[in-house]
Amino acid sequence: MTMNPTVPHLGKMYIIFISSLLYTVNVWADTTDVKTQTIVEVTKDGEHCEQDPNCFNRYHPAIQPVARANPGDLIVVHTRDALDSNLTIDSEPKDVLAIDLNLIHPMTGPIHIEGSERGDVLAVQLIDIKPDEYGYTTLIPGFGFLPDLFQEPFVANWALNSLEAVSEEIPGVRIPNNAFMGSVGVLPGEPEVEKWLKRETDLAAAGGVALPPESTGARPTEVCGPNGSHKDRCLRTIPPRENGGNMDVQQMVVGTTLLLPCFIDGCGFFIGDVHYAQGDGEVAGTAIETGAVVTVKTSIRKGMGSLIKQPHFEGGAQIKALEPDKFHATVGFPFKEAGEIPPQWTYLDSEKIRPLTQLSNDITLAARNSLLQMLDWLEATKGLTREQSFVVMSVACDLRIGNVVDVPNYVVSTICPLEIFDE
After folding, report:
1. Which pairs count as long-range contacts for 231-235, CB under 8 Å and 24+ apart, including other chains?
2. Quick check: 324 and 176 in contact, CB under 8 A?
3. Which residues lie closer than 8 Å to 313 by C-beta, 6 or more apart?
4. DSSP symbols for 279-302
5. pLDDT category of residue 127 using cuts at 50, 70 and 90
6. Measuring CA to CA, how many Å separate 130 from each of 79, 171, 365, 421?
7. Which value, in Å, is the radius of gyration of the alpha carbons in the chain?
8. Each residue's pLDDT tens digit, 283-322
9. Distance (Å, rounded) from C-alpha 42 to C-alpha 57?
């Protein structure tokens, strides 16, 4: 048999061709090009909420959804800072006085979750948070847990990265990234609006602190603005309620799952007010406030609203990772000076407590007592001013309840992590 001398050569060319083809296929199949998730992204538009059709800052069931997502979709939400502010890395204390508190809090949404109904529970797993490069902590006169002691504005401007935050206004301090959603929730239904407005109106009538509906600066304007269809029934976003909202719970970090009762069909899910870091208590009134890109995944727990009537959350080892490696703590009791009525007690016939130096079974006063000791300790040992110390306490130190049984002196501790200091 005569052999064709070109066959081996052709065979070699065939092998080379196949190898080249396989190599080309591998390039086409780079993992970047392989998609496994359905992504629903809700972005920002404009500098502030007033320019953004995906933004609102009041609660009412008449607010229409701006997006729809199925359970299991990755929902990517672009959020604004809590104050919807013009603050920058060069901001000064005087700039704090220009902040319009009617604009608090800009939320991105609402997002309609397909298949969810009133009476269900929405499970929201936090997948990821990518913070902006800038954040701030403000002392706003009359706001925060110690408003009688901090009457002047102050701002700490923080440079943020994925690891830590540093500020020229708080030298020698590095705050680790433990970002979470300061505000996250669902819209109320009509029965909830009725119930919550009544109880807050009753509280205000008794002299308590409760913010009524305010149409100035309200979004969306067609529902909540000065000429809005429900301007007198749009709830403010500052207090957290059964729908979640401004809960400011630092343990709700990446990996945890938040459970929210649904009050309308579709739930009306929203996110806003991301905190790069916060101490338990957020005692100055702000944490490290920043905008961010937040990724969550939802599921529906049908009919569970009969059991879960306000937010719950679940997790694992995440809570352990928030604990300090080293700490200093102060212990507080419900003590005060004779003749003093702290701000939280200026209603409900509080004059009777004026001559007392101790209150009975009072967690709030014990927290105040503990914080005052920590302020003194930080000033004396870390060389910080009173304002700097209060900022550190707000973004890094944790209020912890020690006991609520040892009458009359309930105990609250303030725990400050020492690893945040450069020394």
Report:
1. 233/60, 233/193, 233/197, 234/58, 234/59, 234/60, 235/58, 235/59, 235/60, 235/188, 235/193, 235/196, 235/197
2. no
3. 249, 251, 252, 256, 257, 258, 259
4. -TT-TTS--SEE-EEEEEEEEEET
5. very high
6. 10, 25, 37, 24
7. 26
8. 999 999 999 999 999 999 999 999 999 999 999 999 999 9
9. 16
DSSP label at residue 212: P
Rounded-to-integer distance, Cα 78 and Cα 292, Å: 6
Q: For residue 130, which of 67, 66, 181, 185 has the smallest C-alpha distance?
A: 181
What's the CA dihedral at 383, 386, 390, 392 to 10 degrees?
-20
Beta carbons within 8 Å of 16's beta carbon, 6+ residues apart:
none
CA torsion 202-230-239-47 (nearest 10°) is -150
Helix pair 363-382, 386-396: axis angle to 10 deg: 120
Q: What is the pLDDT of residues 37-92, one digit of tens each?
A: 999 999 999 999 999 999 999 999 999 999 999 999 999 999 999 999 999 999 99
The model carries a pTM of 0.91
